[in-house]
Design a protein that fits this description.
single chain, six-stranded parallel β-sheet
């Protein structure tokens, strides 16, 4: 007879029991609605849970804007939409809240795991009918901890979000094998769509062509290096490396930075602007096709890190130690200024954006791609 997860879970926590085997009807709910980077940072932890409980059903509360990303995490049974925009409007708040409550309560869960650690995510976790409610002990909003029946800890010397999630998921009974490096699998459907998009744009890759993706946008103004700076870097790479092509990637919000970049870049350099023209899955596969991504601290940066693409990223107000690209081949530029890592979304002082030279970025790009200055 298989052990009861509901009975064995608290016993294992209190007594340090051996890992609990998974009954076929075990259900987990992961609460991690956004952002794109946060969801990818949770993938190694979710994968460890999935492998520890191969017979379990795992549902995920997610912002619909990032739902397609869950196609890359095997074993996710159901995506429960957390429509933040509708929840943020007075005329749609109550109907949307009722819809979310109803969707979450459709099934009973053995455990709900809130990896977001916010008041709203903790409250959403409590919507569920569950035996246990897990959440981080270290949260940005202290009241969130009141909603958890079990708190998940990570050591003080563990700083990156990926590693913190991994440390927390290890405290779920039965989870022992946790690998912080999770590479997004290739999904043929999205790959074919990405290749078709390139073909429709008349963009082909020669055998010796160096493909570099450039993502000039970011959610915060303080995270966004000037489009003119990206253009200067691209010109420098093209001058020192023949047969190079660039892809401009990002959401519809990046159309204006991309326009300014192309205007500053001028003619004579092969560049294809796909900002706002791809689905999330197509964006993943396009980034995977390239040799290098040059970007701000942004969603595409996390995609590249998870898809096995080399990353060159610029950091200003945020901590690369906490949310930087979690991959083995990367280069992060962050100016050494007293005001750096300020976490400000807006700032009139643009000194940080003027404290990195295009020359050193060009050198690093050529080094990362294995191309010498004379190649």
């Amino acid at each position: 007879m298989q052990p009861s997860f509901r009975k064995d879970l608290p016993r294992a926590l209190n007594a340090g029991a051996e890992p609990v085997q998974s009954p076929r009807n075990t259900r987990f709910l992961i609460v991690k609605p956004s952002s794109l980077g946060d969801i990818l940072h949770a993938f190694p932890a979710a994968d460890a849970l999935r492998r520890a409980y191969p017979g379990a059903v795992i549902d995920w509360v997610v912002n619909p804007a990032f739902e397609e990303l869950l196609d890359y995490m095997p074993g996710i049974h159901r995506r429960i939409p957390f429509r933040r925009k509708e929840l943020g409007k007075w005329n749609t708040f109550f109907p949307e809240l009722f819809f979310l409550w109803k969707e979450i309560r459709e099934n009973r869960y053995d455990a709900v795991i809130d990896l977001q650690g916010l008041m709203r995510s903790a409250l959403v976790a409590r919507f569920a009918r569950a035996s246990e409610y897990y959440g981080p002990d270290h949260v940005r909003e202290s009241l969130a901890k009141l909603f958890y029946s079990r708190k998940l800890f990570f050591p003080a010397d563990v700083f990156h979000a990926v590693e913190r999630n991994c440390e927390m998921i290890r405290q779920i009974p039965g989870v022992t094998d946790v690998n912080p490096y999770f590479e997004l699998p290739v999904l043929p459907g999205y790959k074919e769509k990405a290749e078709r998009l390139l073909a429709e744009e008349g963009f082909t890759r020669g055998l010796e062509t160096l493909w570099i993706a450039v993502a000039p946008g970011a959610r915060w103004a303080t995270k966004q290096w000037p489009p003119e700076f990206f253009a200067e870097v691209m010109r420098g790479i093209a001058e020192r490396r023949s047969n190079v092509s660039f892809l401009l990637l990002g959401s519809s919000a990046e159309k204006e930075p991309a326009r300014k970049l192309k205007e500053s870049l001028g003619n004579g350099i092969e560049v294809l602007d796909l900002c706002g023209k791809t689905s999330l899955g197509e964006l993943v596969e396009l980034i995977r096709m390239t040799d290098l991504l040059i970007c701000n601290d942004s969603g595409p940066m996390h995609i590249a890190a998870s898809a096995g693409t080399k990353v060159l990223a610029f950091f200003g107000p945020t901590y690369p130690e906490l949310t930087g690209p979690y991959c083995k081949v990367k280069k992060v530029f962050q100016p050494k200024l007293d005001c750096i890592k300020c976490f400000r979304k807006y700032c009139q002082n643009t000194l940080c954006h003027r404290s990195i030279s295009a020359g050193e970025v060009i050198d690093s790009a050529l080094e990362l791609t294995g191309r010498s200055k004379n190649s």
